[in-house]
Amino acid sequence: MRYDHFASSAIRSCNNMNELERIAVHRLRVPLATPYRLAFGVVEYYDTLIAELTDRDGRCGFGEATVLTGYTDETIEDSWRAARQLATQLAPARRADLPKTIQLLGENYPFTATAFATALEMLENSGLLQVPRETAVPLVGLLSATQEEAIRTESERLLAAGYRTIKIKVGFDVVQDAHFVKTVQRAVNGRARIRIDANQGYSAEQGIAFVRELDPADIELFEQPCAAGDWDAHLAVARISPVPMMLDESIYGIADIDRAAQLGAAAYIKLKLMKLVTLAQLTQAIQHIQSLGMKAVLGNGVACDPGCWMEACAAAGRIDNAGEMNGFLKTRSHLFTRPLEFRDGCVWLKPGFTPQLDAANLKQHLVDSVVCVAGAASKKTAA
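Structure (tokenized):
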């Protein structure tokens, strides 16, 4: 997928901007407070890249890419190599040429390119990162307990915290998963919507067996039962599912959204900023989904503060369901000096809020770092 709209519009906006003074990229390993259980493995920390762009007036923009092997074809080693190379390429470039260079990387490394593209959008004071008034963006609450008593306890905790949509993970064992869903339904007892995610964990036969066991009561949707590229398997499940379907890993751009609409494959389409490279492209995709009669769900549960903040800004006023940009609540420490405000099941956005990276926490989680100064050699700092 190409990102020509971003390239042309960003070039125009760059023409009257100061040149860059400094480009820094940091590779982090950010530990989670509690391991995050997915169908393709347990996540104990985030492999995160942070790109910082600073212009000659000292203004700074930053962006994030958190690479999760199994979700994306990008690996942290390849992404880090590509990020270092891109930083070196951007350092001597004219500012007006930056979007095209980032765009080219995005064709093969969309997650990695997102860190740089959104840093540029932030540096240019994109209106997409501001809200006109205090805005509450509701989030999903993740229920990770697996035993009946623990499920009841955690359900009550999530409801007391204000969550009105609860997400659960399946894709492990059809019989056990079906029993798990029923247990959660009893615990929630109509007080919240339930969002089910298989993270590509089922074959077509397993997905069909699973949905045949579902009671649709309180279930909002069922997400990505089968492998991302296996549309036939997904459709086999979707055709008999008693609950609405959502695609996530199958969706990387407009062409995938159009295909889902043409096939009638899903009522919901899940979007993540790190797959669409820019905030501009993300908001266009939201509008496109809605124009096709489907609903957009937005948010990355595997992201730190920068990515979650940017997605919350994109969701504000555009999305009418619970966002999944809750990754910042899973880490042991925050990357912002002033953490995002979370209360009543929502992340709260305020006008004029411009976050700053917490240098001490970045250093604490640092694996490697490269700094490129315009007209000078790059400097490498290892943790």
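The longest strand covers residues 20-38. The radius of gyration is 21 Å.
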